[in-house]
Amino acid sequence: MTLPAPTPPMALLRLAPLALAFLAGPAMAQTAVKLDGTCEKLVIADQDLSSACQGTLMNTVSRSRTSFDFTAADGRTLSFAGNGAQQERTEETDPLQPINLVIAGQGGSGAAPTLAIGACSFSTPAPGKTAITCEANAPGGAAYAGTFVTATKAAQAPAPAAR
After folding, report:
1. What separation in angstroms does the CA of 39 have from each of 49, 71, 121, 124, 129?
2. 145 in any annotated domain
3. DSSP state of 24
4. Beta strands in the chain (DSSP E)
5. Domain assignment present for 161
6. Binning pLDDT at 50, 70 and 90, where does residue 109 land?
7. Hey, which residues does 62 pair with through a beta bridge?
8. Stretch 8-19: mean pLDDT
9. Alpha-carbon distance values, 27 to 56, 66, 86, 127 (Å)
10. Is 81 buried (19+), middle (13-18) or exposed (0-12) by CB count in 10 A?
């Protein structure tokens, strides 16, 4: 016994999961934003490196993970990472990103991620200064912290159209 060929709507339904996977592809792409400003605080495993903290902060989003990445002059790095879907709002304009991992590295080589409990808070960019503040503690008690301040500018109004 042979089955009749599927009707076009049924064939389309069978392709729907593939279409959804294709459409979801770009949303899974990695995005990185480089912020220039002033690093006011950097503490890696209880060691205060604030005086060596660099004036660049990277904010990376990859799949559902978000990280804030600090760098010291000697090449040491510290990333605060968490699930971006768990982001909350503390006030009307202040998002709070829960952190469950910190990753300390040296000269481009990352160490194994360390489980940690903490959060990064940041204000929604508006004219003036915007601060990103991250704090987390590892189960053994080691403290990790970073504070970065960047100047934000007012959005430029589009130029009037020529007549």
Report:
1. 10, 9, 15, 18, 13
2. yes
3. H
4. 31-36, 38-44, 47-48, 56-62, 65-71, 76-83, 88-89, 95-106, 109-110, 114-122, 128-137, 143-152
5. no
6. low
7. 65
8. 31
9. 25, 13, 17, 29
10. buried
Q: For residues 85 and 150, which has the higher predicted lDDT (pLDDT)?
A: 150
Confidence band, pLDDT 50/70/90 cuts, at residue 151: confident
Query: Cβ distance 101 to 114 under 8 Å?
Result: yes
Per-residue b or e along 26-49, where b marks 16 or more CB atoms closer than 10 Å to that residue's CB: eeeeeeeeebebebebbbbeeeeb
**pLDDT tens string 66-101:** 899 999 999 999 999 988 665 666 555 577 889 999
C-alpha span between 87 and 99 (Å, rounded): 10
Which residues span the domain enclosing 111? 29-152
CB atoms within 10 A of CB 108: 7
- Tell me what the mean pLDDT of segment 106-123 comes to: 82
Number of domains in the chain: 1
Whether the pLDDT of residue 146 is over 60: the answer is: yes
Is residue 18 a part of any domain in this protein? no
| Residue at 110 is within a domain | yes
